[in-house]
Predict the structure.
Amino acid sequence: MKYTVMIPAAGSGKRMGAGQNKLFLKIGGHSILYHTVSVFQEDPNCEEIIMAVKPEEQAVIEEILELHQHAKPITFVKGGGERQNSVAACISAYEEKGIVLVHDAARPFLNSSVITELVRTANEKGAAIAAVKAKDTIKYAEAGAVKETLDREKLWLVQTPQAFQYKLLKEASDSAIQDGFLGTDESMLVERIGHEVQVVESSYDNVKMTTQEDLAIGEILLARRK
Ligand code: CTP
Ligand code: MG
Protein backbone atom coordinates (compact mmCIF):
# COMPACT_ATOMS: atom_id res chain seq x y z
CA MET A 1 0.00 0.00 0.00
CA LYS A 2 1.30 3.42 -1.06
CA TYR A 3 2.04 6.32 1.29
CA THR A 4 3.69 9.74 1.47
CA VAL A 5 6.30 10.50 4.13
CA MET A 6 6.72 13.83 5.92
CA ILE A 7 10.18 14.34 7.39
CA PRO A 8 10.87 17.18 9.84
CA ALA A 9 14.55 18.12 9.38
CA ALA A 10 14.56 21.74 10.50
CA GLY A 11 15.93 21.32 14.03
CA SER A 12 19.27 22.54 15.29
CA GLY A 13 20.46 19.57 17.35
CA LYS A 14 21.27 21.50 20.53
CA ARG A 15 21.58 18.37 22.69
CA MET A 16 24.12 16.90 20.27
CA GLY A 17 26.28 19.98 20.85
CA ALA A 18 27.93 19.78 17.43
CA GLY A 19 27.54 23.47 16.63
CA GLN A 20 25.53 22.57 13.52
CA ASN A 21 22.35 20.70 12.60
CA LYS A 22 23.08 17.16 13.87
CA LEU A 23 21.55 15.71 10.70
CA PHE A 24 24.75 16.64 8.84
CA LEU A 25 26.91 14.51 11.17
CA LYS A 26 28.19 11.35 9.57
CA ILE A 27 27.75 7.70 10.49
CA GLY A 28 29.80 5.29 8.38
CA GLY A 29 30.74 8.00 5.88
CA HIS A 30 27.22 9.30 5.16
CA SER A 31 25.16 11.94 6.96
CA ILE A 32 22.34 10.94 9.30
CA LEU A 33 19.91 12.64 6.91
CA TYR A 34 21.20 10.59 3.97
CA HIS A 35 20.64 7.31 5.87
CA THR A 36 17.12 8.29 6.94
CA VAL A 37 16.02 9.28 3.44
CA SER A 38 17.61 6.09 1.99
CA VAL A 39 15.01 3.96 3.78
CA PHE A 40 12.23 5.76 1.91
CA GLN A 41 14.05 5.99 -1.42
CA GLU A 42 14.40 2.22 -1.30
CA ASP A 43 10.82 1.46 -0.25
CA PRO A 44 8.70 0.90 -3.39
CA ASN A 45 5.54 1.90 -1.49
CA CYS A 46 6.81 5.38 -0.69
CA GLU A 47 5.51 7.71 -3.38
CA GLU A 48 6.67 11.10 -2.27
CA ILE A 49 8.79 12.83 0.38
CA ILE A 50 7.86 16.17 1.95
CA MET A 51 10.66 17.61 4.06
CA ALA A 52 10.69 20.59 6.42
CA VAL A 53 14.06 22.38 6.36
CA LYS A 54 15.59 25.65 7.39
CA PRO A 55 15.71 27.76 4.19
CA GLU A 56 19.43 28.48 4.68
CA GLU A 57 20.16 24.72 4.78
CA GLN A 58 18.06 23.66 1.80
CA ALA A 59 20.87 23.89 -0.79
CA VAL A 60 23.21 21.70 1.30
CA ILE A 61 20.41 19.21 1.94
CA GLU A 62 19.54 19.02 -1.76
CA GLU A 63 23.19 18.29 -2.48
CA ILE A 64 23.24 15.45 0.08
CA LEU A 65 20.04 13.94 -1.28
CA GLU A 66 21.22 14.05 -4.89
CA LEU A 67 23.47 11.12 -3.92
CA HIS A 68 20.43 8.84 -4.01
CA GLN A 69 19.81 7.02 -7.25
CA HIS A 70 16.26 6.50 -8.57
CA ALA A 71 15.30 9.54 -6.54
CA LYS A 72 11.65 10.10 -5.65
CA PRO A 73 10.17 13.59 -5.76
CA ILE A 74 11.06 15.63 -2.67
CA THR A 75 9.08 18.76 -1.82
CA PHE A 76 10.84 21.15 0.56
CA VAL A 77 8.88 23.37 2.93
CA LYS A 78 10.06 25.95 5.45
CA GLY A 79 10.36 24.48 8.95
CA GLY A 80 9.03 26.25 12.03
CA GLY A 81 10.29 27.14 15.51
CA GLU A 82 9.11 23.86 17.08
CA ARG A 83 8.99 20.36 15.62
CA GLN A 84 5.18 20.47 15.56
CA ASN A 85 5.30 23.66 13.45
CA SER A 86 7.65 21.96 10.98
CA VAL A 87 5.27 19.01 10.64
CA ALA A 88 2.33 21.44 10.25
CA ALA A 89 4.19 23.06 7.33
CA CYS A 90 4.51 19.62 5.69
CA ILE A 91 0.80 18.94 6.23
CA SER A 92 -0.14 22.27 4.61
CA ALA A 93 1.95 21.44 1.56
CA TYR A 94 -0.03 18.27 0.91
CA GLU A 95 -3.51 18.03 -0.55
CA GLU A 96 -4.00 14.36 -1.30
CA LYS A 97 -5.91 11.88 0.75
CA GLY A 98 -4.52 8.45 1.63
CA ILE A 99 -1.93 7.48 4.20
CA VAL A 100 0.87 9.74 5.41
CA LEU A 101 3.80 8.88 7.65
CA VAL A 102 5.63 11.37 9.85
CA HIS A 103 9.21 10.35 10.53
CA ASP A 104 12.04 12.19 12.32
CA ALA A 105 15.04 12.85 10.11
CA ALA A 106 17.12 11.96 13.18
CA ARG A 107 16.07 8.24 13.15
CA PRO A 108 18.22 6.64 10.45
CA PHE A 109 17.82 2.95 11.37
CA LEU A 110 14.18 2.27 10.63
CA ASN A 111 13.19 -1.17 9.31
CA SER A 112 10.83 -1.25 6.35
CA SER A 113 8.78 -4.09 7.90
CA VAL A 114 7.62 -1.61 10.56
CA ILE A 115 6.54 0.83 7.84
CA THR A 116 4.39 -1.81 6.16
CA GLU A 117 2.61 -2.66 9.42
CA LEU A 118 2.07 1.02 10.32
CA VAL A 119 0.57 1.81 6.91
CA ARG A 120 -1.70 -1.23 7.04
CA THR A 121 -2.92 -0.38 10.55
CA ALA A 122 -3.44 3.34 9.84
CA ASN A 123 -5.42 2.47 6.73
CA GLU A 124 -7.71 0.28 8.78
CA LYS A 125 -7.93 2.25 12.05
CA GLY A 126 -6.84 5.82 11.23
CA ALA A 127 -3.70 6.22 13.35
CA ALA A 128 -0.73 3.99 14.29
CA ILE A 129 2.57 4.66 16.05
CA ALA A 130 5.86 2.77 16.21
CA ALA A 131 6.90 1.95 19.77
CA VAL A 132 9.01 -0.46 21.80
CA LYS A 133 8.34 -2.03 25.18
CA ALA A 134 9.97 -0.31 28.13
CA LYS A 135 12.98 -2.32 29.33
CA ASP A 136 13.38 -0.52 32.63
CA THR A 137 10.88 -0.12 35.43
CA ILE A 138 9.32 3.32 35.13
CA LYS A 139 8.20 5.30 38.16
CA TYR A 140 6.15 8.44 38.42
CA ALA A 141 7.74 10.94 40.81
CA GLU A 142 7.00 14.43 42.07
CA ALA A 143 9.63 16.65 43.70
CA GLY A 144 12.08 13.76 43.75
CA ALA A 145 9.75 11.32 45.54
CA VAL A 146 8.12 8.28 43.94
CA LYS A 147 4.34 8.52 43.82
CA GLU A 148 3.64 5.44 41.72
CA THR A 149 5.33 2.48 40.03
CA LEU A 150 3.76 2.08 36.62
CA ASP A 151 2.85 -1.33 35.20
CA ARG A 152 5.68 -2.08 32.78
CA GLU A 153 3.55 -4.41 30.70
CA LYS A 154 1.45 -1.43 29.62
CA LEU A 155 4.30 1.03 28.97
CA TRP A 156 5.54 1.81 25.48
CA LEU A 157 8.42 4.05 24.44
CA VAL A 158 7.15 5.91 21.43
CA GLN A 159 9.13 6.52 18.26
CA THR A 160 8.41 7.65 14.75
CA PRO A 161 7.16 6.78 12.15
CA GLN A 162 3.62 7.63 13.07
CA ALA A 163 1.09 6.84 10.35
CA PHE A 164 -2.28 8.48 9.75
CA GLN A 165 -5.12 8.80 7.34
CA TYR A 166 -4.27 12.23 5.98
CA LYS A 167 -7.69 13.74 6.78
CA LEU A 168 -7.38 12.74 10.44
CA LEU A 169 -3.85 14.14 10.80
CA LYS A 170 -4.90 17.40 9.14
CA GLU A 171 -7.92 17.75 11.42
CA ALA A 172 -5.79 17.05 14.52
CA SER A 173 -3.06 19.49 13.45
CA ASP A 174 -5.53 22.27 12.58
CA SER A 175 -7.28 21.81 15.92
CA ALA A 176 -3.97 22.00 17.85
CA ILE A 177 -2.97 25.17 16.00
CA GLN A 178 -6.36 26.74 16.68
CA ASP A 179 -6.14 25.94 20.42
CA GLY A 180 -2.46 26.87 20.76
CA PHE A 181 -1.68 23.30 21.89
CA LEU A 182 1.88 22.08 21.52
CA GLY A 183 2.43 18.32 21.66
CA THR A 184 5.60 16.27 21.56
CA ASP A 185 4.37 13.96 18.81
CA GLU A 186 1.58 13.81 16.22
CA SER A 187 -0.37 11.02 17.92
CA MET A 188 -0.93 13.30 20.92
CA LEU A 189 -2.76 15.70 18.63
CA VAL A 190 -4.92 12.88 17.30
CA GLU A 191 -5.65 11.57 20.82
CA ARG A 192 -6.78 15.02 21.88
CA ILE A 193 -9.50 15.12 19.23
CA GLY A 194 -10.81 11.81 20.59
CA HIS A 195 -9.47 9.33 18.05
CA GLU A 196 -7.86 6.08 19.21
CA VAL A 197 -4.23 5.44 18.25
CA GLN A 198 -2.88 1.91 17.65
CA VAL A 199 0.57 0.75 18.78
CA VAL A 200 2.78 -1.17 16.35
CA GLU A 201 5.78 -2.89 17.93
CA SER A 202 8.99 -1.53 16.43
CA SER A 203 12.67 -2.25 16.94
CA TYR A 204 15.18 -0.96 19.51
CA ASP A 205 17.42 -0.13 16.50
CA ASN A 206 15.16 2.77 15.61
CA VAL A 207 16.93 5.16 18.00
CA LYS A 208 16.84 8.92 17.62
CA MET A 209 20.28 10.41 17.26
CA THR A 210 20.03 12.92 20.08
CA THR A 211 23.28 13.06 22.08
CA GLN A 212 26.91 12.12 21.33
CA GLU A 213 26.51 8.58 22.75
CA ASP A 214 23.85 7.87 20.14
CA LEU A 215 26.41 8.41 17.35
CA ALA A 216 28.58 5.62 18.77
CA ILE A 217 25.54 3.33 18.92
CA GLY A 218 24.72 4.38 15.35
CA GLU A 219 28.14 3.25 14.12
CA ILE A 220 27.56 -0.19 15.66
CA LEU A 221 24.02 -0.49 14.25
CA LEU A 222 25.21 0.46 10.77
CA ALA A 223 28.12 -2.00 10.87
CA ARG A 224 25.74 -4.77 11.93
CA ARG A 225 23.45 -4.08 8.96
CA LYS A 226 26.22 -4.47 6.41
N1 CTP B 1 12.76 19.37 13.98
C1 CTP B 1 12.19 20.22 13.04
N2 CTP B 1 11.87 21.51 13.39
C2 CTP B 1 12.12 21.96 14.64
C3 CTP B 1 12.69 21.09 15.59
C4 CTP B 1 13.01 19.80 15.23
O1 CTP B 1 11.95 19.83 11.89
N3 CTP B 1 11.81 23.22 14.93
C5 CTP B 1 13.13 17.99 13.57
C6 CTP B 1 14.60 17.65 13.79
O2 CTP B 1 15.38 18.08 12.67
C7 CTP B 1 14.58 16.15 13.97
C8 CTP B 1 13.18 15.86 14.53
O3 CTP B 1 12.42 17.06 14.37
O4 CTP B 1 14.72 15.44 12.76
C9 CTP B 1 13.22 15.41 15.98
O5 CTP B 1 13.64 16.48 16.80
P1 CTP B 1 14.91 16.44 17.78
O6 CTP B 1 15.49 15.09 17.86
O7 CTP B 1 14.51 17.14 19.03
O8 CTP B 1 15.98 17.32 16.96
P2 CTP B 1 16.49 18.79 17.28
O9 CTP B 1 15.35 19.65 17.69
O10 CTP B 1 17.30 19.21 16.10
O11 CTP B 1 17.48 18.54 18.50
P3 CTP B 1 17.51 19.32 19.94
O12 CTP B 1 16.12 19.16 20.52
O13 CTP B 1 18.56 18.62 20.72
O14 CTP B 1 17.86 20.76 19.64
MG1 MG C 1 14.21 19.18 19.49
In short: The two ends are 27 Å apart (CA to CA).
